[in-house]
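Following up on my earlier message about cobalt (II) ion. Here are the inputs again, as you asked, copied directly from the submission form:
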Amino acid sequence: MAIVCKSAAEIEKMRKSGRLVREVLDALKAAVKPGVSTMDLERIAGKMIQDAGAKPAFKGYHDYPCVLCTSINQEIVHGIPSEKRKLKEGDIVSIDCGVILDGYYGDAAITVAVGAEISPDLVRLLEVTEASLYRGIEQARVGNSVGDVGAAVQEYVEANGFSVVREFVGHGIGTRLHEEPQVPNFGSRGQGPKLREGMVLAIEPMVNTGGPGVRVLDDKWTAVTEDGGFSAHFEHSVAVTKDGPVILTQ
Ligand code: MF3
Ligand code: CO
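Thanks, got it. Here's what our run produced:
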């Protein structure tokens, strides 16, 4: 499958999907506090997506069981919401949400501190991970390459003493959740597919305090750090336009 470029009208539809994802993530961020379970977040998201006339993008995707991925502390991505996982003061939780609205996908993620007492190191992890996403987005320009995006993320993360996960990558997005090209959070400038007008990329750095290694738990989904370090994840869906990068999940 080749890389699909979207028309202005398609990007307009993807803006609507993206806006819904952002509304859900904003509501979940406001709901995060000690004692709330990740299944509580799942219910809020499920209802908002249904009320908007949309469908969740992850549920049923390769048999994934839920609307959200909720990944706490040393969990990197693909944590499965559960009644038993109650958020605690000092935790960090990554919340990843995808929707399908009018045939088009939106996908974004945030990582949120639980309570007011998170450690300074974790505050810095969240700041560096989010800033690395914006470094990558800045490179999503006509004439640049996919490698420019990854290199910008990787350089910023490593300059700040953290590591980027290699096993999971960002992706094209449109009428499917995962389209070409793959968008790694590492790479070399000038390498990989050239970016053209109308491409839409989900850029999603996953950043670890320790090494980059990943292990998948027995539930076959939850990816955790191999060395027990903490991990954060931020994601936006971004259109490459002639006027530069446009964040659809803003
Ligand atoms: N944002 C993630 C991704 O784009 C979430 C996918 S979870 C899955 O890969 F359950 F849908 F696989
Ligand atoms: Co994604």
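One observation from looking it over: Residues 18 and 118 are 29 Å apart (CA to CA). Hope that helps, and feel free to reply on this thread.
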